[in-house]
Amino acid sequence: VEYHVGDQLAGDFADVFGYYPNTGTLPLGIVNGNANIIYSAPSAEEVQTEIETAIIPLLQEPPLISLTDIQTNLTDSLLTGSVQIEVDTAISTNNLTLVAVLMEDYNEEYPNHHGDPHHNIALKRVTIDISALNLDDPVNFEINELDVLPQWYMDNATGLPEDITLVIWVQTLETPYNQNTCTAYNTIEVSLNN
User: Fold this and answer.
1) What is the biggest distance separating any 2 CA atoms in the chain, rounded to whole angstroms?
2) Nearest partner of 109 among 161, 146, 148, judged by Cα
3) d(Cα 54, Cα 23) in Å, to the nearest integer?
4) Which conformational region is residue 132 in: left (phi greater than 0), alpha (psi within -120 to 50 degrees), or beta?
5) Based on the number of CB atoms within 10 Å of its own CB, is 5 exposed (0-12), middle (13-18) or buried (19 or more)?
6) φ, ψ dihedrals at 100, nearest 5°
7) Which residues, including other chains, have CB under 8 Å from residue 71's CB and lie 6 or more apart?
């Protein structure tokens, strides 16, 4: 998911940028929520190589959280939904958070520094502390004010994008940031074509 701060595609995600350790230099990439941080590299190819190096070992690990039975309802101004979450007993539920991000899959109107289109641009985000919830029941979430999106989008939009997608995952978010415990678990992407 691309969170844009201080550029043409800027959204209200300064809190995300501020949570993770960084030098203030953009762009930066964070893989799996923890120590695999990629600061700006000389080329897109080098960034992609570093991301793949971080991701490939993670794909070999069995998922410790299961996300199933995802239900969504999308209107012009509100997305409501629910997801069934099953947590492996090896994971502590302390500081466990559900993250839901509404994003546009593809945008070629505002190319990146290398002239390539952007993918997976975050439009809205919500986090829900699930550490004290009864996970025998589905977890409900909502993303509201979909009629108030980032200015770059509102300037050209005639409604929500056709390639709108919901991405949800469960992550340990401890304050302050702790690279040893901040881990993102199983992630699901759901198309919300309207």
Assistant:
1) 47
2) 161
3) 20
4) alpha
5) middle
6) -125, 125
7) 81, 82, 83, 138
> Tokens for 178?
């702790």
Q: State the pTM of this model.
A: 0.91
**Torsion over CA: 3, 139, 135, 105 (sign):** negative
Residues shown for the chain: 194
CA distance 53 to 46: 11
Q: Tens of pLDDT along 17-32?
A: 888 887 677 777 888 8
CA 98 to chain centroid: 10
To which residue do tokens 């012009």 refer?
76
pLDDT exceeds cutoff 70 at 194: no
Which residues have a Cβ under 8 Å from the Cβ of 129 and sit 6 or more positions away? 95, 96, 97
For the record, the structure tokens of 126 come out as: 């919500």
DSSP string, 10-58: --S-HHHHHHS---S-SSEEEETTTTEEEE--SSHHHHHHHHHHHHHHH
